[in-house]
Amino acid sequence: MKLRILHLEDNNDDVELVRLALKRQKIDCDILAVANGDDYLSAIDNSKFDVILSDSGLPGYDGREALAVARNRCPDTPFIVLSGNAEPFDPTDKAETEGVTARLPKSDLKSLAGTIQTAVGQHLIAAMPKVAGVSSVAATSPTTQAPTYLESMQHLITVVQKLSLARNLEAIQTIVRRAARELTGADGATFVLRDGNLCHYVDEDAIGPLWKGHRFPLTACISGWAMLNRKAVAIEDIYLDPRIPHDAYRPTFVKSLVMVPIRTSEPIGAIGTYWANKRRATPEELSVLQALADSTSVAMEAADLFANLERRVAERTRQLHHRSAELERLNHELEAFSYSVAHDLRSPLISIDGFSQLLLENVSAPFNRSRQDQLERIAGAAKRMHGLIDDLLGLSRIVRAPMRRVPVDLSALSREIVAHIRDRELNRKVDVVIAEGVTAYGDAGLLRIALENLFANAWKFSANREITRIEFGTRTEADGRVVFYVKDNGAGFDPLRAKKLFTPFQRLHTQEDFKGTGIGLATVRRVMHRHGGEVWADAEVDRGAIFTFFIPPG
Description:
The protein is α/β, with parallel strands linked by helices. The protein contains 14 helices and 20 strands.
């Protein structure tokens, strides 16, 4: 049965938390969220709801007003208050409790599903046609009239629906102990579970105390007899039946009883119903109670499966968190190792480069030309290695650097970067188009590094064009995401090899054609991953390339 829930709440985060809590607890429902008094009134006037959830107070609309409207227009609908106050409410305070079905703190949403199940179940019982013995079951006085078989079967349907929603043993116990009385007009009911060779009287609902919390040997009580013999038993006069431990019954009101096993094959418990006056149970009543017990068995198995599933999900989640933490630790160690190695390599390379330069500067005229060429190669290789190590250190710093997310003007940042590149290559004819008003929410320093690499990449690979054109802007994808791009009319690349672009040291062009270390685009990808985004590329050989990236909005 899908429940229709009206939720009066002006905080969207609280609305979402309630929705997720009910979804997690497997409550099948449709929720209509309203944020003010007018929408609340309109919803109540135009739709019927199974339960109303209400904040304790909204700006301009007090929770008591909402309650008054509900009690006037749909008085039988359960009204549950979700309060931001974590303190429990005082059940003796009529101002707080009058007309309120239940009250929960927003910090305790794990109890919301059970509260709704109980409230809706009570509402369904109250909404049924008046049934003798069902509507008049008293907490403290014996019942004199039982419902008819047809009325009991109608009510049993409602009980089975409620049991199908129960997700734990406590909820099942609450439903069953009440239903056992209501279905037969009994004066008391017990919920018994088998505990090895003992019968554990877990719960009860009766006009007087019975045996809640006690354990008895299977062979010494009637609930054990029903389980061991796998069948129901009806006893009109308990003091005439030798299976009854009379001393245990004398302090109670019980004169007659019915005991039915929960599951006839390998019973796991029993349901007992009791009367304060001698009474012969009818075959129809036995049939209804056994149907209740069978439904209880199914509900308990479902609750057990649900609990096992929750445990498995929790364990799997714990394992994933552990593996994630271990992977993160190993990644940090690898980054630290890379940083250390790169840092330690810089010193000897600086020495090689420095001494090579001194030799070249002080070489005499007769110095062998081939040896001078070899020396120049050594110096060039040292410079390239030095640049590679600098790039590696930069890549490592991106992973290790703390992030501070703020709104960033990418248009202004792009203009600064392009101006700096122009100053280094004054002879290049480059037409750069930068869209206005492009912003993102992220770390300004990291986003600058990403854009510097993308613009430097576009500038470098379009060097062979007579007039270079580079463009920066945004576009909206088919899925609705707004993405950013840097586009050029340069050398492009084979699109089948695009995935290699963002891997460190992977180059699609030779060092002779375009110099570089193969670290720049890997750096861009690291920046995007740290922002929870992504970057990808599209191109054709000799027809330019476009690099697109996505940064989740703040």
